Amino acid sequence: GAVELGPFRHFMQKEIFEQPQAITDTIPAVDAFSPALFGERGAAVLPGIQRILILACGTSYYAGLCAKYWLESIARIPTEVEVASEYRYRDSVPNPEALVITISQSGETADTLAALKHAQQLGHTHTLAVCNVASSAMVRLTEMAFLTHAGREIGVASTKAFTTQLTALFILAATLGKLHGQVDAATEAAYLKQLRHLPAALNSVLALEPQIISWSEEFSRKENALFLGRGLHYPIALEGALKLKEISYIHAEAYPAGELKHGPLALVTEAMPVVTVAPNDTLLEKLKSNMQEVRARGGQLYVFADADTHIESSDGIHVIRMPEHYGPLSPILHTVPLQLLAYHTACARGTDVDKPRNLAKSVTVE
Ligand code: G6P
């Protein structure tokens, strides 16, 4: 049936605010990390998986990049991630034992489907779809599936589909970790508790909207922006930059913060806003020195810092403090303010937020 906008200005805003519910709907059956969550073949196949290859496009590809960090650190399984349109035409060296994971909101993206078929032709038999549409071609083609329950996503720029994909991929990493003896009972209990807390944590991040609106006015007058993150939050920086360029048409690029000195620092002037995802993890001290490099060149810093980081607002440094420190699920929470920043910047510029020029919701032709 028809989806109503309710109190929201655009579907994208509505969908950003639906994320606590979308994640609640995606995790109801998860009271333990069981291979059965991935379908009938899960219990037979997942314990034997020693390598993973992830294939996807667009925002779904960034979910895959984030998953690599989880799959390697939590499950200790070597993982490669590749853009589907590259993989399908590349002369790769296949390892048919590897589990191929395709990630797609629609399950109909032409390049991702073609990449999946290409992998199957190269001998891969173990395939898993992380997908939002149960009746899609992708779910029909794969051996296993985990369905995200984001509900229908209308805004062309993906929001709730992305955070439910991340949730699904975290559950996969924890499940493989448990099957491979890397996640003990205490860790499993802690992860489950953090997962169940996610919707409430997302609600407190959504409550930051007024602070983000206050940044968006200045942002809307920029023509370029840099996004920095490290580790697990580098893919989130990529996603933040993609959201901004898709809907506000501001040129945005994301870098792992350590790469700043190898090129993008040359672009930093007073005119360049630099958005930094700065959770309080082990790389924070290094990130702080990257931020000094930006300030020394007059760049304006916009920092999303965790509650327990000692980064204060000062001249040229604007800080929004996240409500908590979120542990391994932090990328999911840090995605939300970046979505809101892109959204309100686009609104301030008056673009067609739900239908940005030249883009389609589902790219079913090559
Ligand atoms: C299009 C959409 C993006 C999406 C990408 C992949 O480019 O505009 O939002 O991330 O396709 O779509 P999929 O349905 O495969 O996740």
From TrEMBL:
Main subcellular location: cytoplasm
Keywords (A to Z) from UniProt: Aminotransferase, Cytoplasm, Glutamine amidotransferase, Repeat, Transferase
Span of domain SIS: 42-182, 215-356
EC number: 2.6.1.16
Enzyme class: transferase
Keyword Cytoplasm: yes
Keyword hit for Transferase: yes
Active site: 361
Subcellular location per the Swiss-Prot or TrEMBL entry: Cytoplasm
Catalytic reactions of this protein: D-fructose 6-phosphate + L-glutamine = D-glucosamine 6-phosphate + L-glutamate
GO molecular function: glutamine-fructose-6-phosphate transaminase (isomerizing) activity
Its job: Catalyzes the first step in hexosamine metabolism, converting fructose-6P into glucosamine-6P using glutamine as a nitrogen source.
Subunit structure: Homodimer.
Name listed for the protein in its UniProt record: Glutamine--fructose-6-phosphate aminotransferase [isomerizing]
Gene this chain is encoded by: glmS
Range within the parent protein: 240 to 605 of 605
